[in-house]
Design brief:
The chain is mainly α. It has nine helices and two strands; from the N terminus they run H-H-H-E-E-H-H-H-H-H-H.
Length: 172
């Protein structure tokens, strides 16, 4: 049987291990980080994530973490309940998958743009397409995502290619 998404296949191959009560939660988190996460993050540097894709990745990650930690008993009422998203992030104590993806995209952008302005690679980064534009709102480009991610970090008004040239500042 072929899976439509490769990361779902990676999850399905270890889902019984993740819900096993014989393993500690730390071990299950290590399995998630070492088996499933690399499959999901493979090649993410070149993606231009839409909001619906970000939401889908968060839903996937929350589902995996709920499988790992299982339901918890409420101390007051004694009833079993599903963990809320905030509880999952507290128990996992690692950045969520979208943050990891955005940091990898920014690192890759810095690598490619740091090669110099005269290189062919930066022409692909900021190059303009020739020809007639399609009707409607333009699609969000990879460069637009980089600018939005930098705005979230507080570096919105700066030219990101010039920012890359100063390596220490870019890494900060």
């Amino acid at each position: 049987m072929l899976c439509p998404n490769i990361y779902i296949c990676a999850y399905l191959s270890v889902q019984n291990i993740l819900s096993s009560s014989l393993l500690y939660d730390n071990t299950k988190i290590k399995i998630y980080k070492n088996i499933i996460l690399p499959v999901v993050l493979y090649g993410c540097e070149t993606l231009s994530l839409t909001l619906s894709e970000e939401r889908g990745l968060r839903v996937f990650e929350n589902g995996v973490l709920r499988r790992v930690f299982g339901p918890k008993r409420d101390e007051v009422t004694g009833e079993w309940r599903r963990l809320h998203n905030e509880d999952l992030y507290d128990l996992c104590s690692s950045p969520n998958i979208v943050q990891v993806m955005k940091s990898r995209i920014l690192r890759w952008a810095g690598h490619v743009a740091g090669m110099g302005r005269g290189e062919v690679h930066t022409g692909y980064l900021v190059g303009k397409l020739e020809g007639k534009k399609q009707l409607g709102r333009p699609r969000r480009r990879w460069e637009d995502n980089i600018k939005m991610d930098l705005q979230e970090m507080g570096c919105g008004g700066l030219d990101w290619i010039e920012l890359v040239q100063n390596r220490d500042r870019w890494r900060g």
